[in-house]
Amino acid sequence: MLERFDIGPFYSQYTDNDEPIRSLIGEENTNNTLLKFRRYSVIRIDNIEKKGLKNWLIGMFSGDKMQGLFSNTMQSPQYLLMPHRMIQMVYNRKLNFRKGKNPPEEIKMYGVASDGDLIE
């Protein structure tokens, strides 16, 4: 399996933020920051033996005698990484991210504890 993480954008009081990010971060607190990321995965589902004299010779020298067959790219939900106190602010303020959902189902939030551990 191959995984790729697309990290960003990063939000702070100094970035150009749309609502509700602007209301969540606020303008007075410089410690409020958010980081979005998404994970993409591809799984090797089968091997196909390479055919032909050229591929046989290449396989003798490289050891690669098979061609991989891969699945379609699977995309994770959009994740937000933020301090746990900001997660509490999201639920306390009942921010409307989209269509009144609080927070949207496709956004998962992780908190960062003071010792650096992730809180899911």
Helical amount among residues, as a percent range? Answer: 10-25%
Number of helices: 3
Oligomer: single chain
Number of domains: 1
Q: Main β-sheet: number of strands, strand sense, barrel status?
A: 6 strands, mixed
Order of helices and strands: EHEEHEEEHEE
The N- to C-terminal Cα distance equals 24 Å
Mean pLDDT: 76
Rounded to an integer in angstroms, the radius of gyration calculated over CA atoms is 22 Å
Number of strands: 8
The secondary-structure class comes to alpha+beta
The share of residues in extended strands comes to 35-45%
- What does the overall shape look like? rod-shaped
Low-confidence runs of at least 5 consecutive residues: none
Blueprint of the fold:
Elements: E1 2-11, H1 21-25, E2 34-42, E3 44-49, H2 53-62, E4 66-70, E5 74-75, E6 78-83, H3 84-93, E7 107-112, E8 118-119
Parallel strand pairs: 6-7
Antiparallel strand pairs: 1-2, 2-5, 2-6, 3-4, 7-8
How would you portray this structure in words?
It is built from three helices and eight strands, in the order E-H-E-E-H-E-E-E-H-E-E. With 120 residues, the protein is of the alpha+beta class. It has one domain (2-119). Strands 1, 2, 5, 6, 7 and 8 form a six-stranded mixed sheet that branches. The protein is rod-shaped, with a radius of gyration of 22 Å.
What's a quick, concise take on this entry?
The protein is of the alpha+beta class. The protein has one domain (2-119). 21% of the residues lie in helices and 38% in strands.
Structural features:
21% helix; rod-shaped; 8 strands; alpha+beta; 120 residues; two-stranded antiparallel ribbon; 3 helices; 6-stranded mixed sheet
